Amino acid sequence: MGALIAVPAVVAAGIAVAATAPDDGRIGPQSRIQPSGRLLKPYGKLTGLGNLPAGGALTPDGRFLWTVSAGRGNNDVRIVKVAEDGRCPKHHGHKCRVKRARQVGQLVQVIPMPGADGGMTMAADGKTAYVSGTKDPCNGCSDGTHLYEGAPKGTPGMEGDNVHVFQYDPRTGQAKRTAVIHIPAPPGAPLPQAVPTVLPRPGPTPPQNFPPTKTSPKSWPRDLAVTPDGKTLLAALNLSDAAAIIDLKSKSIKYVDTGDYPYGAAITPDGKTGLISNETPGTLSVIDLAGAKKVKDITVGPHLAHPEGIAVDPAGKRAFVALANQDTVAVIDLKKLEVEKTL
After folding, report:
1. Which of 11, 105, 161, 305 to pair with 218, CA 20 to 30 A apart?
2. Do residues 247 and 231 make contact, with C-beta atoms less than 8 angstroms apart?
């Protein structure tokens, strides 16, 4: 099933209010009633997206939103226009304003991905984006014989464990893939966890097959962050219990041990410190990027708190870590490297 995003409307004429289906107890897009019973009716325009959009980021100028469709099925990047182009010339008047308002919420482009989990980041240069790549659940099938078709034949990065590099036109929002950076699992990375497929039985259990791990270690990059100067990329390697520090010029990679199942990634405004959230232990790993070493693990929640997304304030004084299993946000004092409070 596709998903929707809400785009704030600029003029009253641009606000779309969908008619509510008869109250017959059904759930779904038409009634906007979720399986939980909650009515989801956001303000503004609604733009249809792809299969399970699990990540997104605005371009630095705020004009385009990139989303990553990461569900079990076709994966892609979808680019949506979320801001008008600017002021209309005086002699164009009302018609120009209406035309530009209608462009807000339009889907600009769909770029197939051979596999994705939602991780992405935007460079400060206003023209470069990075998206985490994983291996297609159906192993790259594209002949229509599998329930979940993969990316078109020849799509770069089919092997997974990589980061896709895109260059985009800041005027039109159109993008093209320019490189794929392979990030293998670091030496000594653990094998993916084994989960039983039926009731417990004697003997070893096969490893999980989604993600399609088989028996080889995988890095499975999740969230990404790039330094303000655009020279260094930080990736949380969810299935390797490590972070990757990538030199974007030489493509060399340095690894730093983190906690179990690292998820979120952020970099302080000075470009010196990386932050990685770890789902299982409920910690935040603080990393010296230049030295490629861990400075400290900060406990931000209890075991299995699942700290995920991280945001750093523009002044670099605080970081905000979303604890998915606690319904809270941990506020980190970046000078003292400790939890200041929990929201």
Report:
1. 305
2. yes
